[in-house]
Write a structure and sequence with these properties.
The protein has 240 residues and is an alpha/beta fold. The chain has eleven helices and five strands; from the N terminus they run βαβαβααβαβαααααα.
């Protein structure tokens, strides 16, 4: 059984980045873009950990209390914010709001996992067996990259982004399961997000990779949950 994580952020790119960094064998991730959306998701089978972007908490200072009251069981909170260069200050503010841990945005994978684990009270994650999800590659692991090949790949894919539908961008069939779509997104995010790469040949390639990642995030919004996917599939054009 994996740890249930609810990520509350109004920023779709931030939501997509966090999803790409959390191992699907260990974390079952849900999203909400507002406090109201988060309150609608928590309940009897609520999350183990809630990651809250700081602007949500600043807009509603009682956000953590309301979420804690809506959950039937114990829940830990992580405050996420891009406003601190010193994480110690961020942790002080996190505790002032009632969160038990803090992570900077954008995080690296190890910092995010450490924050989630701390919020869960240090409880180890129970591993799922036979998930059917491809092995997760740690973005911090050194990888040999042909920079010239990367630049050509980014240029070709960027040029045809608008002609690809959500399934093509994620490289899955329209009959793919929700789990397969989530796994495909994680793999694409690791390929495309410039902050997850050790070396990028130039700023033009970095910008192309970022635009590709935004389109991958768009694809996940369209087909990443059953309701959005049904609406997207009903659209005769099937294009964004």
């Amino acid at each position: 059984m994996s740890r249930r994580v609810l990520l509350v952020s109004p920023n779709s790119v931030t939501r997509a980045l966090f999803l790409s960094l959390l191992d699907p064998a260990e974390h079952e991730v849900q999203f909400a873009d507002s406090l109201a959306g988060a309150l609608a998701l928590v309940g009897q089978d609520g999350p183990d950990v809630v990651i809250l972007q700081a602007e949500v908490v600043r807009a509603s200072p009682d956000a953590l209390d309301r979420l804690r009251g809506a959950c039937s069981g114990p829940v830990g909170f992580v405050l996420a914010d891009r406003g601190y260069s010193d994480e110690r200050r961020g942790l002080v503010d996190a505790r002032a709001f009632g969160a038990s841990s803090f992570v900077c945005v954008p995080p690296d994978r190890s910092a995010l996992v450490e924050a989630v684990t701390a919020a869960a009270g240090g409880r180890p994650v129970r591993q799922s067996s036979a998930t059917g999800i491809p092995a997760f590659r740690d973005p911090e692991e050194p990888v040999e990259v042909d920079l010239e090949q990367l630049a050509r790949w980014a240029e070709r894919l960027h040029a045809k982004l608008e002609s690809l539908d959500a399934y093509q961008i994620l490289r899955v069939q329209p009959t793919a399961t929700d789990r397969e779509i989530q796994a495909a997104f994680r793999q694409r995010a690791l390929e495309c997000h410039p902050d997850l790469r050790h070396a990028i040949p130039d700023e033009e390639t970095r910008e192309r990779l970022y635009q590709i990642f935004k389109r991958v995030s768009w694809a996940l919004r369209k087909v990443g949950d059953p309701a959005s996917r049904k609406e997207y599939d009903a659209d005769s054009g099937g294009r964004g």
